[in-house]
């Protein structure tokens, strides 16, 4: 794949429907190639002065703001409104050297149907870290919307800017960047992320580009990045730093898709999910924990507990219904699991 053949690739694969998801390929070598690839989409409109791309289609709408903040450091803000199931597919220009790493903060709301007459919006926050040449599909579900803040970082920029004063694990971070391809995902781990992300989003969406303050955006971006890294070392994935093949990353992403599609059911079992993904249960079990930091069973439980915690803020939904929604066949079992995770009973939250 290269930029010259990108229009033909888009013509062949853009919005290809497979497994109930429409495919959206994009170039991922660098922020520049990503922007060039998006501009070439037949449904895209580009405002070069504002550094803004808008995409409107029957499947999804998107607004993308991009800024080069420093040599080797870019920020991209993407707002997406998903109308049908979408899966984004990373592609690489084989003739272009790739030395950008992408740190992404995803804050999305999705509609959760409780029964025939009731639905709620749930918030899903996650971080991902992509090394160069790592191909991972990202699934976006119908009737979801939210923001994706992406930081594109060159290794040399990281070495220069990540001082030991700000980054407690600087050596481990640099070692992490030195190794081969990789992809990791964290459930909401940075407590200040939402406020900082909102501040950055408001600045980037300012229509008058003359008011844009590069120094302010760099400062706020660094706060967000520091917040992420200082919390990410509570788990050992960055320091352990195990690289998988692109096929293994794709299989793990498919397994997560199956888990998230069935949160309202009891855990489906590793064997069932591995069969759906077409890989061995042992390999999938190991690789899933490398990428997500949880076993598949515990990831299912963690997502359910986070959703339950949000649902408890809605007084119109009974605790019994929340237990059923999150896959528990009794309120007492749900309450015990909830207290084990948060140290407080669901009724005390109410």
What this model shows, in words?
The chain has 350 residues and is of the alpha+beta class. Helices cover 41% and strands 27% of the residues. It has helices at residues 6-13, 31-39, 155-161, 170-178, 193-204, 214-232, 237-240, 246-261, 270-277, 281-292, 296-311, 319-325, 331-342, 346-349; strands at residues 17-18, 21-27, 44-47, 52-56, 60-70, 73-82, 86-91, 100-115, 118-130, 138-140, 144-154, 183-187. The strands form two sheets. Strands 3-4-5-6-11-8-9-12 form an eight-stranded antiparallel sheet, with helices on both faces. A four-stranded mixed sheet has the order 1-2-7-10, with helices on one face. Helix 8 (246-261) packs across helix 9 and helix 12 packs across helix 13 (331-342). The termini are far apart.
Using only C-alpha atoms, the radius of gyration works out to 21 Å
- Proportion of residues in β-strands: 25-35%
What's the tally of helices?
14
Described by strand count, sense and barrel closure, the largest sheet is: 8 strands, antiparallel
Query: Spatial order of the strands in the main sheet?
Result: 3-4-5-6-11-8-9-12
Q: Which structural class do the helices and strands define?
A: alpha+beta
How much helicity do the residues have? 40-55%
pLDDT averaged residue by residue: 87
Unreliable residue stretches:
none
Give a count of the beta strands, DSSP E runs of length 2 or more. 12
| Overall 3D shape | globular
Ends distance? 54 Å
SSE topology string: HEEHEEEEEEEEEHHEHHHHHHHHHH
């Amino acid at each position: 794949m290269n930029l010259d053949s990108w229009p033909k690739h888009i013509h062949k694969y853009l919005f290809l429907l497979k497994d109930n998801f429409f495919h959206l390929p994009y170039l991922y070598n660098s922020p520049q190639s990503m922007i060039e690839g998006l501009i070439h989409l037949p449904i895209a409109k580009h405002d070069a002065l504002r550094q803004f791309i808008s995409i409107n289609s029957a499947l999804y709408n998107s607004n993308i703001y991009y800024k080069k903040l420093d040599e080797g450091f870019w920020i991209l803000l993407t707002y997406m409104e998903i109308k049908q199931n979408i899966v984004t597919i990373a592609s690489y220009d084989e003739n272009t050297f790739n030395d950008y790493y992408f740190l992404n903060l995803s804050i999305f709301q999705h509609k959760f149907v409780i029964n025939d007459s009731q639905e709620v919006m749930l918030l899903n926050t996650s971080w991902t870290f992509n090394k160069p040449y790592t191909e991972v599909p990202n699934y976006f579900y119908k009737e979801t919307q939210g923001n994706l803040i992406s930081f594109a970082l060159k290794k040399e920029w990281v070495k220069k800017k990540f001082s030991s004063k700000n980054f407690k694990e600087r050596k481990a971070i640099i070692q992490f960047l030195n190794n081969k391809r990789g992809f990791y995902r964290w459930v909401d781990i940075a407590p200040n992320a939402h406020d900082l992300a909102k501040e950055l989003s408001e600045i980037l969406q300012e229509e008058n580009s003359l008011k844009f303050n590069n120094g302010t955006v760099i400062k706020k971006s660094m706060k967000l990045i520091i917040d992420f890294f200082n919390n990410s070392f509570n788990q050992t994935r960055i320091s352990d730093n195990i690289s998988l093949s692109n096929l293994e990353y794709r299989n793990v992403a498919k397994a997560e898709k199956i888990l998230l599609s069935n949160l309202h059911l009891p855990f489906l079992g590793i064997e069932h999910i591995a069969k759906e993904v077409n890989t061995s249960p042992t390999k999938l079990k190991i690789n899933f924990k490398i990428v997500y930091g949880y076993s598949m069973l515990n990831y299912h439980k963690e997502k359910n507990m986070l959703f339950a915690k949000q649902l408890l803020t809605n007084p119109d939904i009974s605790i019994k219904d929340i237990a059923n929604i999150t896959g528990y066949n009794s309120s007492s079992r749900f309450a015990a699991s909830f207290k084990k995770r948060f140290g407080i009973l669901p009724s005390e939250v109410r």
